[in-house]
Amino acid sequence: MNQRVRSTTKAFAASAVAALAIAVAPVISQPAHATTPPGTVSAKVITKVVKVSAKTYGTRSYRPVGKLTAGGNPIKGKRIHLQKKASGRWMSVTSCVTNRYGKCAVIVTPKVSRYYRWKFAGDANRRADVSASFYLKKRGSSGSTGSGLDYTYANGEKVYNATSANDRDCGEIPAGKKPVRINNSSDPWRLDRDNDGYGCE
Predict the structure, then answer these.
(1) Is the dihedral angle over the CA atoms 67, 69, 73, 75 positive or is it negative?
(2) What digits encode the pLDDT tens for the residues 148-175?
(3) pTM over the 0.90 mark
(4) FRET label pair with 176: which of 18, 53, 118, 131, CA 20 to 30 Å apart?
(5) Residue 117 in contact with residue 133, Cβ under 8 Å?
(6) Residues sharing a CB contact under 8 Å with residue 167, sequence separation 6 or more, in sequence order
(7) What ranges make up the beta strands (E) of the chain?
């Protein structure tokens, strides 16, 4: 009699443990859901300042072009600073606001040869960033601006020694000659509105 009761009790206990394990297992296997505390600021977008070019401008100056992007997309309406390296530290020279292509350009006349870079200070949603540095040499006050080749049309035709005296607007250039490549970066005809090296696009 006692043996039968003990056997029944053991069987009941085993069944109860098995049922409890089945009931608990799904709860244990559920991953914990992370919650974002109220007021948490979202992660900033990684921003990249790209040095596009540092073309010569006239006989003494340069026109560095900077570009600001986030995730590969251009950022419009943000100020980026051109900095120079002097005495081992970087300092701002001038700045400009990016256009719809994320680009902007400034004119700089180095008094001595030195390194330059572009810097974006960051904002509420994007991290600060700097471009790779580039070297600008001090240029003379006189002399040639280059080979004399100013523009190359899309059909291969070349324009040498362009001046205001023979100025042409984009509307005067046939479609088959567009876009026009800017060879001598002074761009005397002012065809390159977005400073990307090509005009009348």
Answers:
(1) negative
(2) 678 889 888 888 777 766 788 898 899 9
(3) no
(4) 53
(5) yes
(6) 188, 189
(7) 47-57, 61-70, 73-74, 79-86, 89-97, 103-105, 114-120, 129-130, 134-136, 149-152, 158-160, 180-182, 198-199
